[in-house]
Amino acid sequence: MTNSNYRLRLPGPTTVPERVRRAIAQPVLSHRGPEFRSIFNRAEELIQPLLGTGNRVLFFASSGTGMMEASLVNILAPGERVLVSCHGQFGDRFAAIARALGATVDTLDVPWGRTVDPGDVERRVSAANYRAVVIVHNESSTGVVADLAAIGGILRDSPVLLVVDSVSGLGGIELRQDEWGIDVLISSSQKALMCPPGVGLVTLSPKAWQIVNRDDRLPRYYWDFRKAMQSVEDSGTPFTTPVSLMAGLREALEMIHEEGLSQVFERHRRLSGALRTGCEALRLHSFPQVGSAGVSSTVVCLNVPEALNGGDIVRGLYQRHGTVIAGSRNKLEGKVIRIGTMGFLNAGDILTDLLHLEDTLKSLGFPVASGAGVSAAAKEISDAR
Ligand SMILES: *Cc1c(COP(=O)(O)O)cnc(C)c1O
Fold it and tell me: Which of 10, 14, 65 to mutate to test the pocket of ligand 1 (most atoms within 8 A of CB)?
């Protein structure tokens, strides 16, 4: 298969634009020299508005999961209690990491496809003594967004930390760490930030730093945020920085700011909405059972019709068109398919997805009206102009 007919349409990793690939291809720099320092500082400066924070940003060579573990080893002492919202696969993963570290883990179990009710968080935190509440901002396995402003408001004046995974939200969905009261916010490079996998990042509130700076935490070395903070004050990281990926990240952030942050968020909203509308016309109904405020703009998660299996749709799209989307690797396996709508994406990409979906559904003997998906989505995009 040639490059030109490989369409990476996953909810991560996502397509890396040419400009970013060129930046990554530049000669490798010393991670402690002035040339790299200016790239590093610029990346931090450009990413802060996406996070909605004035806090320093710590970068690690890591996938998103590494940052999940890092956030917990820096705030937990052995046996301390955490409350993890489990409304999808990544909430479950966070709970598994916390258990592996020896924390006492309570889960707030929410049916998949729904979002966590801030009132439930309030009830649970008033009933036990938690070090932290862990929430996945954008649950990529179900396409649902949590109401962080409301949850942050509940925890703000308490000693409980709010830990948030926005791996698949940052850069595609609005985040306001400082205003919403998020204490530990993690993300990584390969989703809406339009970079290859490999860079993880975290920002911490002053309230979180008070806990991180205690000496009775879990064992930590590579992940020690105190060391990372000392280095960032020197424009660097404690260990060798993934310099090429950071150069790519900086370029991607320049692109985001050139387009304008609110325009970027609006584009994600518009295109994910149009894709959902088009899929509806193909009788692929949206999986999330939430109002529009809770539906993700970065991941479209669709119910697979009774007569079909999700794996067959995923395989058909790939084999017939080189279009790579995701099924599900958990209890929804076969029942949902997922398409990324984040990062480097335009209306043409959505319309092509729908054309390929229509053809694949027909090939599986699932009758759909010719052109129905493309035309419904195109109409919605045109009407929005
Ligand atoms: C992709 C993703 C992660 C991180 O996964 P890695 O494969 O470790 O990078 C974590 N949380 C969410 C919500 C994600 O979408």
Answer: 65
Half-sphere exposure of 119 (CA within 13 A, CB side): 0
What is the distance in A from the centroid of ligand 1 to the CA of 334? 20
Task: Please state the atom number of ligand 1 nearest to the C-alpha of residue 65.
Answer: 8
Query: Which atom of ligand 1 has the smallest separation from the CA of 191?
Result: 1
Q: Which of 129, 185, 80, 143 is nearest to 290 (CA)?
A: 143
Neighbouring residues of 159: CB distance < 8 A, sequence distance ≥ 6:
none
| Tens digits of residue pLDDT in 203-249 | 999 999 999 999 888 999 999 999 999 999 988 999 999 999 999 99
**Rounded Cα gap, residues 231 and 238, in angstroms:** 6
- Taking the C-alpha atoms of residue 160 and residue 18, their distance in angstroms, rounded to an integer, is 43
Spatial distance between the Cα atoms of 273 and 359, rounded to a whole number of angstroms: 21
pTM of this structure: 0.97
Q: Name the residue at shortest CA distance from atom 2 of ligand 1.
A: 167
